[in-house]
Records
---
Amino acid sequence: MGSFDGLDEGLALAEAATDLVHVVTAFANNAVHAREGGQTMRAIVFAAVACAIAAGTTVTGAQAQGVTGFGRDAREKPDKKQYIPATKPQEKIFPLDATWTAVSLNGKQFNGADRPSFIIDKQYRARGYGGCNTFAATAFPLRDQQLAVGPLALTKKPCDKGLGSLEQDFFIALRTAGQWDIVGSQLIIKSQKGELRFDRAL
């Protein structure tokens, strides 16, 4: 019995060893397969990453080409309105060699037969009457309908107090003349003293 028992134990050990060999072999095969599968997965991952990189490079290149090809000049530009300078009214020519009789200063009427008057001749010499005294000066019509009047040379005739004051206001307004205009039949001179209006003498 002892010999058979030993034989049985030997057979059991041999089967166990065989089973162990099978297990080790299967484990080794699985390991090999797992390693090969990992390499395959890594290859697939690498291929996918390479494709993604290639695709990204293509898109980036296309975008770059789009910026280069269609850059700033092809972008929509806001419409620029064409500048149109304001049209100036036609400038008038000052009427030389015409005598003008004062009508009002700042709306205050000049009454009576001795109303102030003046004339500017073609030599740009102004002369006239203030209501009591006469005067003479140089006067130059300028661009943009401006009028420059030089210092007045006056006679020194004694005048009524009220008339003298009105005459003085007229002389100051004429001496500080600025812009002039013809409105209807009247000459209008704007000055530091106010607005002078004249009718053309017959």
---
Amino acid sequence: MRIYKSSRILTYNNNSGYKENGYKMTKRPSYIVSTSSKSFLPAKQTFSKHFYIFALQLINKNRMEHKIVFITGATSGIGEGCARKFASQGADLILNGRNIEKLNALKQELNAQGTDVLLLPFDVRNRQDMKQAIDSLEGKWKDIDILINNAGLVIGVDKEFEGSLDEWDVVIDTNIKGLLAMTRLIVPGMVKRGKGHIINIGSIAGDAAYPGGSVYCATKAAVKALSDGLRIDLVNTPLRVTNIKPGMVETNFTVVRYRGDKKRADNFYKGIRPLNGDDIAEVVFYATSAPAHVQIAEVLVMPTNQATGTINYRQPEK
């Protein structure tokens, strides 16, 4: 195992023990003192466990240090969770959303933690605004390393022969056409630079239709097809494509599904512990922090008591 931190390297070998380069240590240390910071690691009885965790955290953080991560729909739920997770790992963020007030609040929070943040407020359904915003990128912000196509929604639980055509336009334009346009505008630069990762937030709904969700399910099935197709198109490049398919996640997404009825949205999760935006952000980060030769193509992630899009177990009310 080798840990890189600036120019300092610490190597551990099971046979020969610890070798120093910028660190003072004995072969069986009670603790290790960095010559530059005088910081201490845990005592020898817990050293192996803590050192291994420390090593993984350091390696992953170094992989994300100052990478440019572009997140659509970053003002709540999964997008907001991704923003905080990648910020905690040293990435620089381009955050997109429609709610400027929420975007500014999130930027101030992350700036206070030392994260460099650029805001691009636009609706992914508006291709002209999208293109103008992306064309305006300058300097380091042009070199996007990770694109997280997260913006998405569903409105209503109507039967297919009873739903609103106007609402369906919003859902289709956001979930499919918005994702496709972002991909079309961002990925050519990644191909030119020879590096990049596209994360598409799909859904378990893309695997099979369920009552009252046919249009939404169709859009997420499209996300799967677009992810698979893009992966095929990029097979001769170093770029990676991942489709993350969450099950039940408690976010504002469900409130929008029920057209603003918060009580009905809350009832949807009664008796079961759903996932949250931070849970999905961890999965997204895991996929992006894998070694460059590892492509995690698809991840289906659900609460423990969910088996499919329609089958779950709920604790009875007491």
---
Amino acid sequence: MTSAMRRSVTAFTLSMVAAGVAACGTPPTSASLVSQGLKAQLAGDESTAQSTYQQAIKLDPNNAVAHYDLGTVYDRRGSPSQAVSEYTATLVIDPTFTDALFNLAVDTARVDSAGAEKLYLRVLTLQPSFASAWLNLGFILQGQNKLSQARLDWTKAVALDATLASHVPTTTPGRAPRRPGHSVATSSR
């Protein structure tokens, strides 16, 4: 076999190997799986999103975004305890992940309002323009009967995002604050 023929055979063999590798595709990465999971989640396919995020976590247990996104799927599916576990895992990896802090506060506020208050305050320390955190902190303070501070926080929330105004409780002199949409019985006398 001449050297020219060997080069041709080698080139042909390498091109076949390259074609075979390309046909097999590259193995997915944790980041690519998170992207696929997000696409599925946005398309409303939460089952696929959940399994894809779980695969991403298997490939890289330190992928904070995969844990966070899996937590959001669990929240939407009505599994707050699983969501709390994923948000907690996210925060172990990245303690400054503000969306995970916020969602953890939302999911724990009913059972631990003091803990949720601390979480909202951490969110606001990291991201002072997080309007929904100001709004929810106001609700926590309202529950603690700290109405003047609650009103200040609601004012900050609305200043940052005017669309939140419809969520702010209204007050009437002599009456406790109420949430919009909740009627208050009045006397006809």
